[in-house]
Amino acid sequence: MRLSVVIPVYNEKDTITVIHQAVKSIDIVSEIIVVDDGSTDGTGVIAQGLADDMTRVLLHEQNMGKGAALRTGFRHATGDIVVVQDADLEYDPAQYPKLIRPILDGKADVVYGSRFVSGDYRRVLYFWHMVGNSFLTLLSNMLTNLNLTDMETCYKAFRKEVLDQVVIEENRFGFEPEITAKLSKLNVRIYETGISYSGRTYQEGKKIGWKDGFSALRCILKYNLFR
């Protein structure tokens, strides 16, 4: 199977080259799609320099959000399996074989990489982020009737034919609860596997904040109860 990796990027000039090299070094990766979401720090120029036979670089003229960047990337992905990869070095591409194994084994259509079940390591950081994440995952599970431990995780792998059945509407971080709600209605096989996680601080460039938590809450209710 061909594996496509979609990397949404916004103002990550210090890490885009590093993450691109890390993804490219994984021998099971067939295609890399970098979507620069209107960066203002020169990331887009750096990203364009990474384009090659394996890597396609797409540019948004203005910043629209992670969901919008993923929507663009998914539309252009050609692999049989599509994986989401953030550009901030919190998630290690060496985890791809573990992440996609349930799909390759014919057991799963979608796999979530959980930061809260057994992985190799996890950086210890913000308590209230964990509380917020756990609350959002719990509420999402109550409405989807799933038993995920980490709905908000970046690492999600999809069979492309399943991903093509989902229309992403949210432009920002609401992508996570939106796609979870929509997948739950497709009656697809969802698996979860533990992954390693090296979270970063706000001083190191972390972007998600409390406003995004309220947006996620809105999306959980919207896509589970009113769609």
UniProtKB/TrEMBL annotation:
Classification via Pfam families: Glycos_transf_2 (PF00535)
Domain called Glycosyltransferase 2-like: residue spans: 4-166
CDD domains: DPM_DPG-synthase_like
Top-level division of the source organism's lineage: Bacteria
UniProt-recorded name of the protein: Glycosyltransferase family 2 protein
Originating species: Geomonas oryzisoli
